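Cross-check.
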Amino acid sequence: MPDYTDHAGTRPAAWYEGLTEGKDSLFADREQPPSDIRYRTLTYEVTDRVARITFDRPEHGNAITADTPIELAAAVERADLDPRVHVILVSGRGKGFCGGYDLSIFAENGFTPDGGAAPVDGTVLDPAVQARNHNPWGTWDPMVDYQMMSRFNRGFSSLLHANKPTVAKLHGFAVAGGTDIALFADQIICADDTKIGYPPTRVWGIPAAGMWAHRLGDQLAKRLLFTGDCISGKQAAEWGLAVESCPADELDERTEALVARIARMPVNQLIMAKLALNSALLAQGVANSGMVSTVFDGISRHTREGYAFQLRSATVGFREAVRERDEPYGDWKRAQFRASGEEDAER
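Predicted model, tokenized:
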């Protein structure tokens, strides 16, 4: 016979209890899922209702490899399925959030990165296949390129499509492909001096995620992508790209305060609020923007100037090619945003 004397009405503010708390929980007596998991490119842990996903290649500026989107999507899915988790926090270990794709591998070595965690031999993700498809003297197959790049987008967009709120904590630098990840998060909080932008629009890149106009609006997005300029974290907050910026030494404290306030909310309320708000964002055409932008990103790497940049990188090194690209704009190694390792991992 059920005990009807012990119910939610007898407990103060029972609506703030987690899904696993109380005798009436659907998860009563069930074993908790693992909360401290290690991947090749990131770490994952759960503390205080927060799933913490941390990019963990600090010696390479947390540059994106073929494993990154797969592991990010897996970690986000793990957090989504864990009833203890109310909010997902994504950050980077070391001197910056993410410096983009690891083009010290790709641009200099003909798209032949080290083997990843998942078997890809004989598929469109096979490094040998992609190397042939990026041969300046060969024939480019745009759909093989699209199949490869769209899978990076699919992994990064897990932050947008997750049921639960996602927060990106930016410090140091979030540039090029790093912004493809950050702009999919529901909330961005950053240090005042964070460098944020997509310099590869100057040559050899279009932001494949296609999120800039959705996050900033038409004119401000064009202001950045027509020039390849970067903005500071403080300016990102002023423009509405970030919900908050603060001095770098306060970022951890301010981020924890934000995610704690979100985590206090009932998880069902959070999921419904996100789904309701996402319906408006998706109606703007986010999926279409990503598809078109991914195609154009591929084209940008196979134009006359795109091949010139690739050949220059292979000849003198990626760092020197980026210097030649950025010096005319006066922001090569700009002191305001300087971050060690960034120029070696950026697209």
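The chain has 14 helices and ten strands. Confidence is low (pLDDT under 50) at residues 107-113, 335-344. Passed to J.P. for a second look.
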